[in-house]
Structures are given as C-alpha cells and as structure tokens.
Amino acid sequence: MEPNTVNIDRSGAAPVFTFADSFNVSTYMIDRHLDEGRGERLAYVTDSGQVTYAELAARVNCWGQALRDAGLAPGERLMMVVRDCPEFVYLFYGAIRTGIIPVPLNTLLRTADYRYMFEDSGCSAVVYSQEFAGEVEPALAEASPKPAFTARLEGPGGMAERVPSGPVSIETHPSTASADCFWLYSSGSTGRPKGTVHRQRDLLVNTVLYTEPVMDITEDDILFSAAKLFFAYGLGNSMNFPLCYGACTVLSDERPTPEMTFRIIEKFRPTIYFGVPTLYAAQCRALETETPDLSSLRACISAGEALPSPIFRRWKEKTGLTLIDGIGSTEGTHIFISNLPGDARPGTSGKVLPGYEARIVDEDGTDVAEGDVGRLWIRGESVAARYWNQPERTAATMLGDDWLNTGDTYQQDENGYFVYCGRSDDMIKVGGIWCSPIEIESRLIDHPLVLEAGVVGREDDDGLVKPEAHVVLKDPNSLPPGLEDDLLEHCKAGLARYKYPRWFHFVDDLPKTATGKIQRFRLRAGE
Ligand code: 3UK
Q1: What range defines the domain where residue 36 resides?
Q2: What is the distance between the alpha carbons of residues 79 and 149, in angstroms, rounded to a whole number?
Q3: Gap from CA of 276 to ligand 1 centroid (Å)
Q4: How many other β-carbons are positioned within 10 Å of the β-carbon of residue 331?
C-alpha cells in the first residue's frame, strides 16, 4: 500500500480498516481533498472569513514548518490553549504532520490547572490565544521545568507571525496507525487530570464508525458544534468529522448561548448541529418567545451528559427535529453508543455502533444478567492507548485488547437500548464538562468559616445535573447573614466558572465511612 493510505472495507456488518505500514493521519484528513478535487471547496467559515481546502492544506504545512523552526522535535508535546478558529486546525494538524503531539486543553481552566498540565506532560511548547493569557502566563511563570517554547497565537511576535508566508513543502513525518498522535486531558474523581494518549488511527476509525450510520456526512454538509474544539466532542464535530468527508464547518469563539447558536444557524445555514443537553434546554426556553429559522438543519446531535427525555420531546415539539443522543468519552475518542435517525429512543443512549462492542459487568468483570445494572465496558479500535505516566490508572481503565472501562453504569432495556444510570465514581458532568466533587469541596474548605463540605450532583427541574454543596461550618451555631452569597462568590472566583454549587445546605455533619471518607452516595440519596 501507498504510505499514509487506508483501505476501508464497508461491505460487511462493520467497516474494516487496513492501514499502510507507514501512516500519518494528516495526509488522509488534509491533503487527500486536493487529490480528490476539493481544493476550491470551503473547509472553514467564520464571522471574519473563510478557508478553502487548498488553503487549509497549505497552512497546515506552513504551521508545521513554524513548529519545526521553533525547535520542536517529533514526539514532543505542544500544549494548545486556543479558541475556536481555523488556526486551531493548522496547529493541530501542522503538529501531527511533523510528528509533534498536539494536546488541546480546556480553555475554561485556571492557572493551577494549567501549571499542573504543563508540568505533568513534560511539554516542550505552549501556544495560547491572547484572551487566555491571564490564566496561562502565571502558570508558565510558576511551572518547573518550563516549556522551551511559548507563544501567543495572535499579536506581535505571536505564532501567526512566525509562520512562513510562502508555500512550503514539508516532509510528512513517517508514523504508523498505532503510534502516538495526540493527547487530551481527562478528569478523574481522585487525583489530577490524566493525559489520554491517542493513536494515529483513533480519530479516523471513530469518525467512520460513528458518523456513517448516524449522519452520513457528505462534502455538501455544513457542520456547526456549540461544543468547542478543546473538548473531545467538539474536536470530532468541528475538525475530524468534516475533514474526513470534505465538508464545511462553521467556527466561532463566542460563548455558546441560545442567541449565539440561533444567529450562527440563520447566518451560515448548517445542516448538522451538535449541542449538549444543558444548551438544548436553554434553546427550548428561548424558542418559547423566538422563532429563528432552523430550516437548514437535517440532524441535531446531543452528547456530553445524559439527555433527559423531556428535553428530547420539547426540542421535537418546537423544531420538528429529532435529537440524536449518544455517549462518547475522551478515552473512546468520541461516541461509541448512539441512537440513530429513525430509531431514536428518548431516555436512552441508543445501541452499540457496528465496529464497537459493549459489555455491562459487575465488580469482578463478569457480565450481569440481561437487564441488570452494571459497569459499561466498550471495545473498539479508537480506544486510547494509555494515560501518560499513570500505569495504575491505565491498568484500571484500558483493560487490554482494546477494552475500555468507561466509569459509567448502564443497563439495557428489553429492546437492547442502553440506559444511563449514572457514574460508578462521584464525578459530575455539568453542561457536558467534568466537575470533580473533591475540587469543589476543597475550594469550599478554603473559606475561613467552613469546616468541611460534601458535593454531589443533583438534577434540576430540567433533569440536568448540577453541583449541590452540603457544608459544615466551623461554628455550627452561627450562620452569618449573606454567607451563601459569599460562598458562591468564593467558588466562582477560585474555580472554572461552571463548577460553582447551585444549592447550599448547611448541615451539622456529613455521612462518613469508618475511615473518614465522605459517603457521597448517601448525600445523593438525601440522607
Ligand atoms: C458522560 C454521557 C450520558 C459519561 C464526549 C461525546 O463527554 C464526552 O467526553 P468526556 O471524556 O466525558 C465522558 C463521560 O461523559 N456522557 C457523555 N455523553 C453522555 N452520559 N449520556 C450521554 N450521551 O459519564 C461519559 O463517560 O468529557 C461526548 C463525544 C466525545 C466526548 N469526549
């Protein structure tokens, strides 16, 4: 086989992938479109401009060259704290082109989070959008050791200025389908985030296995994801899915709100839209008084947290469109269990996509009886290889033979649809983004009047989970007026914005184990 090619046999029940011995995924996702005559078609559109596939391919080479010129070598990590813009894609694929490992980071994090990730990854470079300088630059100042190369994306001396302007021809770094390609950081309930190491093949395999049965993207589609590129969900939606089929993507760095999404949909007329349940709920509320033109949409996807069936119904009522809920994860690359158009069952995550396998098991890893609740394991060729430098957590999650312990509990209903029953750890998903209860509790305990705190997820009126805090005061006999507002401000100031508790309860003590660990399951049960 020609280097950097893949043969995808779609004749059987599930696609079968055969990769060339030498395989770098950037050729398939970027340059192939020129060979297939799509050079003049649009790859990206934004409020300020557009990029064709020919321009995209040229810029990926230029940005790859700029990374090389900055002294980065194959295998070294490039941390990206970058807003949604075409340069994100130039950096990501420019790095892969040259064998550098791109690591997109959540742009909503705080200095301490960034410092940890810069140190943990042993990265050689950090590139960041200037709007995140306030959190990233102090992290760089504190980090030890320091990355050798740092640059803002925009502005004087920024990365965009270092990129050669003329066409460059650059050798594609020889890699293999199972070699390290990119990382994403994934949060855990205990301990710090984990660098999740993905292979060259993962993003391509996942794109084919998920999107072909669910939305069958063609080069005539226009995609729009409210979830940003830094999130594994958005990374597929706005980058790997369209680039796999030569489709067009709308990018915006604006905060996703109902108004923003409606404006973008009316202006750019996307055919496929990706959101999270929290946003769909807000959009449904906005649709009670507004009537935006959503007629361009043919598919609406939901993921990141469980989709409550009332929101599925409201969206259908208001727009006539069926929400397609599917469960994916950073470790799985993207969605592996999904509903299908024409076969969407509200209140479930759907069925296993062909090419993936799923098991629901008990604590010993034995399959539970049909219909029983257990832990969800999935298997497929897009599952991450390992966590960076965390052999114990790798062993507990990547079980070998491409099996992944998702950390979720599920059961199958009588028709085989997978029904989400919560996490098997204490982690909370808020608007599709992780919150560790321990992190929120630690912040609360930092307050001078707080003795201890227990945080759990609780459903709001829409059935969406938000953090709820149970707080024990140092002086249980005095509850100063305004303390709740004070704690709220304290949390908002010290945590990523979405992590603040929506409810506070002042209690005399917290349920604990004999060894003093908070029993969050008892708090959840309302004890
Ligand atoms: C939860 C869901 C119920 C579940 C993601 C789509 O969310 C993504 O990745 P993360 O690593 O989190 C994974 C965890 O989130 N979850 C996600 N989707 C659903 N729970 N129903 C759902 N539909 O706990 C899972 O283990 O942040 C989502 C595509 C790519 C992704 N990375």
Answers
A1: 26-200
A2: 10
A3: 10
A4: 26
- Residues 120 and 144 sit within 8 Å (Cβ to Cβ): no
Q: Are residues 111 and 256 in the same domain?
A: no
Q: What is the pLDDT of residue 249?
A: 98
- Among candidates 140, 176, 148, which has minimal Cα distance to 76? 148
CATH of the domain at 338: 3.40.50.12780
C-beta of 407 in contact with ligand 1 (< 6 A): yes
Atom of ligand 1 nearest to the CA of 326: 23
Domain boundary among 423, 458, 476: 423
Determine the Cα–Cα distance for residues 490 and 444; give it in Å rounded to an integer: 8
pLDDT tens track for 293-347: 999 999 999 999 999 999 999 999 999 999 999 999 999 999 999 999 999 999 9
Total number of domains constituting the chain: 3
Q: Separation of 145 CA from ligand 1 center, angstroms? A: 33
User: In degrees rounded to 5, what are phi and psi of residue 126?
Assistant: -135, 125
Residue after which a domain boundary falls, among 423, 445, 475:
423
| Residue 514 is assigned to a structural domain of this protein | yes
Enumerate residue ranges in the chain where pLDDT < 50. Answer: none
Q: How far apart are CA 418 and CA 231, in angstroms?
A: 24
Model pLDDT for residues 217-242, shown as the tens digit of each residue: 999 999 999 999 999 999 999 999 99
pLDDT of amino acid 111: 94
pLDDT tens for 10-35 read: 999 999 999 999 999 999 999 999 99
Domain match, 174 and 285 both: no
Q: What is the CA radius of gyration of the chain?
A: 23
**Residue written as token pair 């990029």:** 51
Cα of 289 vs centre of ligand 1, distance in Å, is 31
For residue 496, the model assigns a pLDDT of 86
Q: Where are the alpha helices (DSSP H) in 293-362?
A: 309-319
Cβ-contact 251, 48 below 8 angstroms: no
Give the single-character DSSP code of 382.
T
Q: Does residue 383's CB lie within 6 angstroms of at least one atom of ligand 1?
A: no
Task: Tell me which DSSP letter residue 172 carries.
Answer: P
pLDDT at 189: 63
